[in-house]
Input
Amino acid sequence: MEKIVYIIVLALTVCVATAQEYTVSGGLGEPLLAVDNTNYRIKIFLVWGMENVKVSYISASTAHKWYRYRTKVDALNPEAVASVQNGTSSYITGVEDEYGYYVDENGNMRYYVFIIDYSKLAAVINSIEVASDVDPCVAIRLTGDADIKDINYYTPGGALMKVAREFQVSYQTQKWNETLKQFSSDTYSETFSGNPFARSFTTPPLTDTEIRLQGDEFARHFGVEQSAVTDLYEAKALEIHADTTVVSTGSGNVTGGSESEFSAPALILFKAYGNTPVASRFLWQIFREEEPDKPLIHSSTEEVEYTFDRTGTFIAKLEVSDRSGSCLNDEHQFQISITETVMEIPNAFSPGTTPGVNDVFRVKYKSVVDFHGRIYNRWGNELFSWSNPADGWDGKYRGSYVPAGAYYYLIEYTGTDGKTRVRKGDVNVFRSKSINLEKTNPE
Output
């Protein structure tokens, strides 16, 4: 039973507290509720001038006693304020700047209202410029001539609190589109609280631009918002993207190995994208992983092609700097691994017997830079030659299958170690009875 009574009392108290409502009128323009501090049960209203300022109060009670405080509520000797009451509503006039007001309804939960004359504290921004004490590669900070006073109030318990002002910074920049692989013009805007000259903006402009500061939001509400613009700011910050395209590779037909490895010769295109013209100096370097001080190529262009024809692990590194050389971006590098050469030569095949199954004399290979093969009969006559290791001999000469027997191959190839090798030997041609019925070339 006691629990039920407690819940009812609590509900009634909450209802009374919720029903309490202050409204503020007067001054020039519409007063603004700047802060609703529920922790201290206090609302901060800004007015423009104190002329005819009135605070009204409405609740479910008909017993209204008004009080005020300057810096702290005096619970023992509260400062009473004359009011005009009409049933469940009442109001006070002669309201003073930087005072807190409240109504006591027979000791029920109180809510407080604090009045501030914003006309004395309006933000004034005369001029701004970009400060020189911040690294322009990663951030910018504004400095300038402005009069921005603190807007303070006191909680009922005497705690000094500050009303945060909001300002807005905006400027032109560039925005990267990953799908289109290009930059486009964009506008950057940020709204923030606090001193605009104490904040660093970590998204600096990516193009030359004026920078605008405007605010605060209270001044905007009263129609007196200030703004200032810098001179044209020369951007230095970089945003760089890069990618690779495999133009062609000597793919090979030997399975196994890592998916990140390429078979030589591998022609790869490296391409950089930057916020030009701020990003103006591009440098691609390609070197062996173990020899970073011995670059194989320098290229001062945004894109470069390179054919990897040696085994090993290579690094393609990109460096980009701005026009002044103040900012450097070297975050992008790519690792390219080229497999060692593999060359396996079969010693027999059966042309025309089972289509698609060992019916072509074809080498198994990987990372072959250069290739030339020849087939001879036992009298030394050349029957076939080919220069692409992916091709092979189908067992025919002048359109007809050669007879079964031993034939000879001579294969020259260059591997990823840069050396040219010669392989020679014999290959046996097997024939089935069905093939014997076909026309064969007597060589």
